[in-house]
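During the second half of the funding period, the structural biology subgroup turned its attention to how the target accommodates small molecules. The most pressing case was zinc ion, which had performed well in the primary screen but for which no bound structure existed. We therefore specified the complex as follows and requested a full 3D prediction, including the ligand pose.
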Amino acid sequence: MIFLICTGNEMYTTAERLFPLSRSITGDGTRLTLKILQELLPELKIYGIPSGTRCFDWIVPLEWNITDAYILDASGKKIVDFKQNNLHVMGYSIPIDAIVDYTELNKHLYSLPCQPDAIPYVTSYYSPQWGFCITQHQRDSLRDGKYKVVIKSTLAEGILNYGEIVIPGQSEKEILLSTYICHPSLANDNISGIIMTTYLAKWILHQPRRYTYRILFIPETIGAIVYLSKHHEQMKEKVIAGFVITCCADNGDFSFMPSKGGQSLADNVARHVLKWNTKEFREYSFLERGSDERQYCSPGIDLPVVSIMRSMYRMYPEYHTSLDNLSFISAEAFRESFSIYCKCLNAIEKNNKYRVNCLCEPQLGKRGLFSQISMKNNYLGDSRDLLNVFMYCDGTLDLIEIANQTNLPIERVIKIADILTKAELISVNHY
Ligand code: ZN
């Protein structure tokens, strides 16, 4: 098992490449992002859904593109420039080219008084309006007078794009990985999720696979709804565990967003891996959900989807501001989060329920197991571990539940189950 086919540095370098692009739920920046991902993952298929397509209670909006935007003061000086930072324009702003006075301009400005150096990330996908997002310092420096406001954007019939890779395994049962591609220059939320999902896909492609992997790069909310409207029946039948991958490369402690039920395989494996591989992690309530688990876990869809994050969206001050930039994420955090995700996927791949093949404790000595496991420094260590795992092979508990019952890490329980299986003391309980 090679956990790290890539380095955190490589992931960070790719994040630097994607960071500047002006993404939204539709448009050229998002398309270019998918094209770059396709360079890294030639298996990625890019799909397009036309504006106006009805998906459950939603309609795919017009495609939004933007080439430039700025504010000039009365002297002609450019005081706000989209080309300096794409967060300066409210996402989905309608075009404008006008002279406005200060009072009118002020109605279209967004800033954060509590974070005077930060440009907020603001969108208005479904209510046509224009707006500029600036720092509070910039706003405080504005005076009465005339301003020229220019937003060179278009809203027109077009398409909503998303990317999908299906990597077949021995089984048709699926593991879902889903990330979102609609945020512009914001690093933890969510360049980090795009990069993590890309490198996990590259890793999965090189692993022996029991399960099939459905890996999605979609615009948040509308993309998930579009995708589910086409695939939910198949996904309900096949997906055994899913992860919304987001906010995974800042240096904060790990966070966990459970599925709605909180007791699925994905929940169990995530909690277990986080418990054994992090100093500490914080589990949030599903009531604090914020990403595409809102769709995946909704009634009638009911997929077992969780999120493993570092600092969770909304919970860190830099969230949805220009302070969530490349200096807020790190190669080391990428590496650590990647390792956690690989451990989860590996645990799911190896997870089974077992039943014993003999009643009462087996005689380990005659199988050469007792002497082997009683050796000092042997990886099995105490024979108690082996007998403890055996004790819970009652056909109802899976290895992750047994790992929790026996207070052992899942990797160790997998190895012990392998040894007990080879000794014909336990068998997979096919049910
Ligand atoms: Zn966000």
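Two results from this model are relevant to the next phase. Residues 183, 189, 313, 320 surround zinc ion (CB under 6 Å). The longest strand covers residues 146-156.
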